[in-house]
Amino acid sequence: MPPITPQRPRLTVLGTGYLGATHAVSMAELGYDVLGVDVDEAKIGKLADGQVPFHEPGLDELLQRNLATGRLRFTTDYAEAARFGDVHFVCVGTPQKKGSLAADLRYVEAAVVSVVKNIHGRALIVGKSTVPVGTAEWVEELIAKHAPEHAEIEVAWNPEFLREGFAVEDTLRPDRLVFGVKTEWAKEMLDKTYRGVYELAAAEDREVPVVVTDFATAELVKVSANSFLATKISFINAMSEVCEAAGADVTQLARAIGYDLRIGNRFLRAGVGFGGGCLPKDIRAFRARAEELGVGAALNFLSEVDEINLRRRQRVVDLAAELVGGSLAGKQVAVLGAAFKPNSDDVRDSPALAVARKVHDAGASVVVYDPEGNENARRDLPEVSYAASLDEAAKGAEVVLVLTEWEEFRHADPVALADVVNATRIVDGRNCLDPELWRAANWEYRGLGRP
Ligand SMILES: NC(=O)c1ccc[n+]([C@@H]2O[C@H](COP(=O)([O-])OP(=O)(O)OC[C@H]3O[C@@H](n4cnc5c(N)ncnc54)[C@H](O)[C@@H]3O)[C@@H](O)[C@H]2O)c1
Ligand SMILES: O=c1ccn([C@@H]2O[C@H](COP(=O)(O)OP(=O)(O)O[C@H]3O[C@H](CO)[C@@H](O)[C@H](O)[C@H]3O)[C@@H](O)[C@H]2O)c(=O)[nH]1
């Protein structure tokens, strides 16, 4: 990619997890000088050594290439970060608070304070983490309290919409950019920062829409986008429940309604529901913030969205029990999938792992296999066994549950697998298999929302 030349701001990325590492690497790929910063020394050590600490297709190669050019470096030293950066991207985690629906902003606070107290010139702090509306104003207050008096620091909010599994592509070629700003200078700095993205789009005859807003709107764009996506999934999963009761097929229903362009065919895959480090916590934090703002009733539907989603996990467990004759106690169960979606090793709030836990709690002996997620899963759910391959997981199973739609599972051979299991029973928790194929190989097949 041609490096962009004039007036390139130097960038730091504070927090080098799924979002930050991808952002740092992608911005270096676009020609910027980037310093990635994290408090996790092991993570920084790996990144500096050219190893991506998580699974994200294509990221390893770009990391190594950009380390080699010298454009990309990593550190745990905030003083160095403050000296280096013109623009500081805040990409730290905003997980759900323990015992509450709300977002935990302690890492945002720590990152902002650590960097601004060391800034002596002019700089822009750009929030990328997903946060409750009002956070950017609070970050301004933190800066006023902690920055040296002579420093000139402004804030912008620039939410990120990347999807895991497509993170690099989404960063280099975003559907849109959102700039929540208060001043023309902040807008100009963001334009300079994203010039590489604009130039790549122009070279490919595309345009990247840029929506310039106030802080509150930018913050809300992010959580409302995720709420809409979560609602779409729970809508189709609610239809799935009705299809099950009525003997209809939700996959055909989704296809048919999706032809209406007003509805669209994407994000209508019924199954065991949404998980991950974003949608579940974001809809909960949004509800909590709306309560604080006195408009909780406006988002009551999001609690229904959450409940529909969680009910699907129990539905898979019930189907598995039904298939083995009523009780899972003492049965061997193969769980295929641990990551919350394919092409990721992320197991945060993963439906697959939640089901594995429930099946284990029901007294079954559970063997999990995920092509990339075993290691993270073992940390979260050490009570169950992990297999190194699909065949090893399925060996001797009374029922197989497909809970993450990895290609490897989609293309599994039902005839060959029949020789490995103890009983040919399968629950397709992602509606990703061809029922006819599996039934033809003598499997008792159950999908979600399918007759
Ligand atoms: N993962 C995604 O696909 C995605 C997409 C868009 C937005 N987001 C949002 O981005 C934020 C980060 O998500 P993530 O998935 O990358 O989380 P993550 O847990 O993978 O990464 C967060 C990183 O922040 C680091 N950190 C914590 N405190 C720090 C500090 N004081 N200074 C520097 N680093 C610190 C952690 O060590 C960790 O490496 C969240 O708000 C999330 O909602 C995530
Ligand atoms: O039709 C569908 C589509 C998705 N899912 C599930 O929904 C979850 C989320 O999927 P996806 O949105 O692709 O993954 P994320 O990487 O979590 O991305 C979401 O969350 C990010 C963090 O906020 C945003 O940046 C992205 O735009 C938003 O799509 C996963 O468990 C999927 O299995 C379904 O069950 N059915």
TrEMBL record:
Enzyme class: oxidoreductase
InterPro entries (UniProt xref): 6-PGluconate_DH-like_C_sf (IPR008927), NAD(P)-bd_dom_sf (IPR036291), UDP-Glc/GDP-Man (IPR017476), UDP-Glc/GDP-Man_DH_C (IPR014027), UDP-Glc/GDP-Man_DH_C_sf (IPR036220), UDP-Glc/GDP-Man_DH_dimer (IPR014026), UDP-Glc/GDP-Man_DH_N (IPR001732), UDPglc_DH_bac (IPR028357)
The UDP-glucose/GDP-mannose dehydrogenase C-terminal domain, residue ranges: 334-435
Annotated SMART domains: UDPG_MGDP_dh_C (SM00984)
Keywords: NAD, Oxidoreductase
Pfam families listed in its UniProt record: UDPG_MGDP_dh, UDPG_MGDP_dh_C, UDPG_MGDP_dh_N
EC number: 1.1.1.22
Keyword NAD: yes
Pathway(s) served: Nucleotide-sugar biosynthesis; UDP-alpha-D-glucuronate biosynthesis; UDP-alpha-D-glucuronate from UDP-alpha-D-glucose: step 1/1
Catalysed reactions, as listed in the record: UDP-alpha-D-glucose + 2 NAD(+) + H2O = UDP-alpha-D-glucuronate + 2 NADH + 3 H(+)
Family, as annotated: Belongs to the UDP-glucose/GDP-mannose dehydrogenase family.
Identification of the protein by name: UDP-glucose 6-dehydrogenase
Lineage of origin: Bacteria, Bacillati, Actinomycetota, Actinomycetes, Mycobacteriales
